[in-house]
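Dear support,

I submitted the protein below through the web form. The confirmation email said the job was done, but the results page showed an empty box. After a refresh the structure appeared. I'm attaching both so you can tell me whether what I see now is the final result or a partial one.
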Amino acid sequence: MLVLTIAAALLLVVTPSSAAERKPPAVAIDHHVHVHSPAILAFLPGYCASPGRTGKCDPEFANPLTVTDLLQAMDAAGIKRARLMSTAYLAESPMMVPPAPGHAEIVRKANDFTVALARDHPDRLQAYIGVNPLTTTALPEIERWRGDRHVAGIKLHLANSRFDYHRPEHVEVLASAFRAAAAARLRIMIHMRNRAVGYGAEEARIFLDEILPAARGTTVQVAHAAGWGGVDAATLDALDVFADACEQDRKRCANLYFDLAAIKPGAASEADKSALVGLMRRIGLRHFLPASDWPFTRDLGAYYAELAALPLTRAEWRQIARNAGP
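What the results page shows now:
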């Protein structure tokens, strides 16, 4: 009886401690969030109904959430800071058919809005302006923000821009945007996966060889671990090229980072999750940034708990959770 009593007492002491140990460590910075501006919210009904789109808009996409909603979600998850990505590039997407009247003005207003949020919350938010690199307005818009201390970088979305890695003129224009960002001392955040069937290794090689050098040492953050959310063969094929490049020459990857926005490992197979973690280890865990793509992942605490379920060691996840991109 005495043994059972002692054992029960020990169980009461040990169980809460073990549960606490299983709780994933808090993420310091969410490196990929969005809040639509009023100009973009007004534009979205036409964009979502456009015949140039290949699918329907996610209902969350047009949800009129505010910066207050974002900050409340961050507070609930214990997240101190976030990189706020403008969605201004949507206004000049070729998927909008016909183009919206005053599309260039929508871009400017949307970027003004995002920067104003960072200006109002400097201890919580860093602003990234958005441009479509294939438009004539992209370089002037990048230059417009040169020297503004509330602007941390630029956001580029190649799928939304219908970028084609196999058109040399597209590659050169994108490299020009990289050079412009570097000259303006702005970081680069890029959704590099495009809409082409067969995206993967070859596109990653073109990015590494012909586009990345134009960044000239500027920090480059690749969204969604080189995919567009989830874990699939195309994402893994692209990451494998980066892993080979990093292993062969660490200097090529010195300023290159990958965010884990919308990875959603709960929907991935065990084989794909293991393959992703293997590639992360080859590239180096310091190059992977915690990110959510809020508001598509509304509950940040739940998202990061799911992300922590990747087959990483606790020490490895602790490192990633604390990573802060330059």
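Response: this is the final, complete result; the empty box was a page-load delay. The chain has one domain: 26-322.
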